[in-house]
Amino acid sequence: MNRDLFNTRSHRSKAISDMVLNRPGVVDLAVGDPSWRPPAAVLRRLRQIGDEPDEAMRSGIHRYAPAQGTEKLRTAIAEYYWRTQGWAVDPSTEILVTHGAAQALWLSIFTLTDPGDKVLLPDPCYLLYEPIATALGRQPVRVPTRPEEGFAIDPDEVARRIDKHTVILMVSSPANPTGSMLDTTTLTRLVEICANAGMFLVHDEVLDRFAYAWPHRSAAAVAPEAGSVMMVNGFSKRFGMNGWRLGWLAGPARAVAAAAKAHTLMSLAANSLGQEICAAALNDPAVEVETARMVDEVADRGRRFRDTIVADGLFFCPPGLPQGSFYLFLDASGLSGRARAKFADHPTDEAVTRYLLQECEVAVVPGTSFGPSGDRYIRMSYATSEEKLAEAGHRLSRLDAGH
Ligand SMILES: Cc1ncc(COP(=O)(O)O)c(C=O)c1O
């Protein structure tokens, strides 16, 4: 048995979501599971493929895709970066299509580091980074962030933690779980610091469409000459299709070739059907309009939900957040006394999570799932439907009266 894997924490928000799957009364705000469906053009193409099986056979849609991803999808991804970021990526060598961004993250850590290397991670950060690093025998090192600074990572704090064993820094922007975003100045400094230290910056931008405070920037695009940035992205969030499991990584050719080798050994290739359909949709202007409308609705829904649940003072949202994403990272100290009275054996974030499930049937994720600094926090996803959010808001407001 792999000892590193054995000692690794499992994915907590997925575990909570799986646990409440058979409890229909529970409003699940634990996982970032989009309530919106794939764009109309995607569903139309899917139907057309079903209606024309001979054409589908001829186009090779039921066969293995090339290991690196279809040329059509890689070209569409390169066009996406050029169109949205002005970043020129070579689709033949600098892009790898993966099983969701999750696999791209795993491949980035596996490919760019050796066992024993140090991996810098913001505290808090997306909950897959640390367990992947640990499962691979790498050493996670946390970089603290502060709620009063909107959880923005401070480049000086990063620089202070670099030694000769430090090999990569992982960030997400727009960020899960905090909803913060990195501005261009910070991104540029992080790229410089990593390049000067001979390190890679891995920028997870799966939430790029959910940028509200200012337009999203890809780290690779702010300093393309650095050659030390790996971008991770995917279709789950933008197209409401996280079950399709399709994502990508983009970066320097040598690193992408190594990741492609690992990807082939692991799974041969990502799914052909999704690649065919997403290639046509990624730069489609009609899809663009539909996605922009959906993002506006999600942002609006998130703001209204935040305002409802912070109104009674039981939850506190750090000022200015969320700048992006579809998550709220809330200080739940206002509930800690009541929650600890019921669940005395549990730390605050766990006790509050259990309390909310028991008293309101609302599922959330305890803050320490994202790092030790989350001990007073919980994360709520507002990617769910308007009705479910309204119901959750209603149930949480009742807590104010001491129910
Ligand atoms: C920041 C971040 N990165 C990666 C992922 C994984 O995305 P995918 O479904 O593309 O694997 C998620 C999913 O919630 C996420 O929030």
Hetero ligands? pyridoxal-5'-phosphate
Q: Please, how many helices?
A: 16
Integer average pLDDT: 94
- Can you tell me the overall shape? globular
Please identify the structural class as seen in this structure.
alpha/beta
Percent range of helical residues: 40-55%
Strand order of the largest sheet: 2-8-7-6-5-3-4
Which H/E pattern describes the elements? HHEHHHEHEHEHEHEHEEHHHEHHEEEH
Stretches where pLDDT is under 50 for at least 5 consecutive residues are none
Largest sheet features: 7 strands, mixed
How would you portray this structure in words?
This protein is an alpha/beta fold. The protein is 43% helix and 13% strand. The longest helix has 26 residues. The site of pyridoxal-5'-phosphate (PLP) has 13 residues, from helix 6.
Structure, briefly:
This protein has 403 residues and is an alpha/beta fold. The chain contains 16 helices and twelve strands.
Describe the SSE topology:
Elements: H1 3-6, H2 12-19, E1 27-28, H3 40-51, H4 53-58, H5 71-85, E2 95-98, H6 100-112, E3 118-123, H7 129-135, E4 139-144, H8 155-160, E5 166-172, H9 184-196, E6 200-204, H10 219-222, E7 229-234, E8 247-250, H11 253-267, H12 272-281, H13 285-310, E9 327-331, H14 336-342, H15 348-360, E10 362-363, E11 365-366, E12 377-381, H16 386-398
Parallel strand pairs: 1-10, 3-4, 3-5, 5-6, 6-7
Antiparallel strand pairs: 2-8, 7-8, 9-12, 11-12
Bound molecules: pyridoxal-5'-phosphate (PLP).
